[in-house]
Design brief:
Elements lengths: L5 H20 L3 E5 L6 H16 L4 E4 L17 E2 L6 H9 L7 E7 L11 H6 L3 E5 L11 E3 L6 H16 L3 H4 L2 H14 L10 H12 L4 H10 L3 H12 L2 E3 L4 E6 L1 H7 L9 H6 L6 E7 L5 E7 L5 H7 L3 E2 L3 E6 L4 H15 L1
Parallel strand pairs: 1-2, 1-4, 2-3, 4-5, 5-6, 8-9
Antiparallel strand pairs: 7-8, 9-10, 10-12, 11-12
Helix pairs in contact: 1-5, 2-5, 2-7, 5-7, 7-8, 7-9
Bound molecules: manganese (II) ion.
Length: 355
C-alpha cells in the first residue's frame, strides 16, 4: 500500500469494524447510502461496503431511492440492494415497523455522497440514523469528523473502498476474495472505470491502476464493464445522442458549448433519461472548448445540467449556483421546475460572467 490512502483507509476500516461489531451484538442491520441519479461509482462503492460487512458476519443492504439502471444489470448485484418504496417484502416490513428482516437499523454508511439532501427519498432515513460513516471524494463536502473520510483527490469512492477493503484484510487476516465477492469486485471496478472515464481523466493515479489490477484478479472483467457501461447502446439512444450533438450551440468565442434536450426529444426518439449521457464529454473534447453543458428535461419536468471542463473552469463552483455540486472538472445540478429554455438563458448569462 502506498502512502496516499493509508491514513484515511485505516481510519475508515476501524470505523467499519466497530459498527459491524456493535450491530452484531445488538442484532441490528447496517444501511449503506448512495446519491440519487445513481452512477457506476456510487453503486460500486456501496456494493463493495455491503459485501465487506457481510463477509465480517454483519448484516447490510444498500438503500437505493430508485431502480438500478438497465445498463448495470450485468453486475448481478440486486440482492445487495433494498428499495424502501418498492413492493418487496423487506420494503413493506420497513414501512410498517421500521425493521428489515426483524432487525432495527443500527448504523448508516454513505459512499460517494455525504448528505441526505443528495439521496432522494432515502435522505430522510439517512438523517435519522446514528452513527454515520462517510467515504466520499466530492470537493463540495464541507463537514468533517473522525467518521468521515473525504478525499477530493481520489479518482472515485470505489478506489477508496478498495483500499478500505485492503485495510480490513490486513486487520482481520481475511483474504481479499472473501471480503469482496466477485460481483462486488466487478462493481467496484465499474465505479473506478466510470469516474476516471476509463483511466483517461487526470484523477487516474498509480494507485488507481494498482487497485484495478487487483480487482480484475478478484473477478472484475474490464472489457465486460467497459462494453456495458460505455459502448453498448440502443438504436434510440444512438439517434437521440446524434440529435443532441447536432443541436450544440457555441458561446464565449466558442469556448462554451451548450446543448438543450427537452423532454419531447426523449419521447420522440423513445430513449430513456440516460439517452444523452455520452454527449457532454464529447462536447468538452471539441478543440477550443473549455466548458460543455448538457441540459436535459426529465419526464417529471425537472431539468438536469451536466457540466464538464477541460483545464481551468471550476464546474463544482458553477453547479453550486444552481444548487448542485461535484468535482472541479465534472459536476451537475437539478432544477426542480421551470422552462428549460429559460434555464438555458440563465446558464448562458452566468457562464458569460464566469468564463
Ligand atoms: Mn464518484
Amino acid at each position: 500500500m502506498r502512502e496516499r490512502y493509508k491514513e484515511g483507509s485505516s481510519r475508515s476500516a476501524k470505523n467499519i469494524l466497530s459498527v459491524v461489531e456493535k450491530t452484531r451484538e445488538n442484532n441490528e442491520v447496517i444501511l449503506v447510502f448512495l446519491h440519487r441519479s445513481v452512477d457506476g461509482d456510487c453503486v460500486g462503492s456501496s456494493s463493495g461496503i455491503v459485501s465487506m460487512i457481510r463477509a465480517l458476519g454483519g448484516d447490510a443492504y444498500v438503500a437505493i431511492p430508485e431502480d438500478l439502471p438497465e445498463n448495470m444489470s450485468f453486475l448481478k448485484i440486486d440482492e445487495l440492494f433494498f428499495h424502501p418504496n418498492s413492493d418487496s417484502e423487506l420494503a413493506r416490513e420497513f414501512r410498517a415497523q421500521g425493521t428489515i428482516g426483524g432487525k432495527k437499523v443500527g448504523a448508516a454508511i454513505a459512499t460517494d455522497c455525504s448528505e441526505g439532501s443528495r439521496m432522494g427519498l432515502c435522505g430522510e432515513i439517512f438523517d435519522s440514523i446514528e452513527p454515520k460513516i462517510v467515504i466520499d471524494h466530492h470537493a463540495s463536502v464541507t463537514s468533517r469528523s473522525d467518521n468521515f473520510w473525504i478525499d477530493p483527490d481520489a479518482s472515485s469512492a470505489c478506489e477508496m473502498v478498495f483500499y478500505v477493503a485492503e485495510q480490513i484484510s490486513l486487520m482481520t487476516g481475511k483474504e481479499m476474495r472473501e471480503i469482496l465477492c466477485p460481483n462486488a469486485a466487478k462493481a467496484v471496478l465499474a465505479g473506478i472505470v466510470t469516474d476516471t472515464g476509463r483511466y483517461t481523466f487526470k484523477n487516474t493515479h498509480p494507485e488507481t491502476l494498482e487497485s484495478s489490477g487487483l480487482l480484475i484478479d478478484l473477478g472484475g472483467d474490464i472489457s465486460e464493464v467497459c462494453y456495458n457501461l460505455f459502448d453498448r447502446k440502443t438504436k434510440q439512444k444512438f439517434l437521440l445522442s446524434a440529435k443532441a450533438r447536432s443541436e450544440v450551440q457555441f458561446y464565449c468565442n466558442e469556448k462554451f458549448a451548450l446543448t438543450v434536450v427537452p423532454y419531447e426529444q426523449f419521447k420522440k426518439y423513445g430513449a430513456g433519461p440516460d439517452g444523452v449521457d455520452d454527449v457532454v464529454s464529447a462536447m468538452r473534447d471539441i478543440d477550443g472548448v473549455e466548458l460543455a453543458i448538457v441540459l436535459r428535461q426529465l419526464e417529471t419536468g425537472e431539468v438536469r445540467g451536466n457540466i464538464r471542463s477541460q483545464e481551468y473552469f471550476d464546474c463544482s463552483k458553477f453547479a453550486e449556483v444552481f444548487g448542485g455540486g461535484g468535482h472541479v472538472r465534472a459536476a451537475g445540478f437539478t432544477v426542480k421546475e421551470g422552462d428549460i429554455n429559460e434555464i438555458a438563458e440563465e446558464v448562458i448569462k452566468r457562464v458569460k460572467e464566469a468564463l
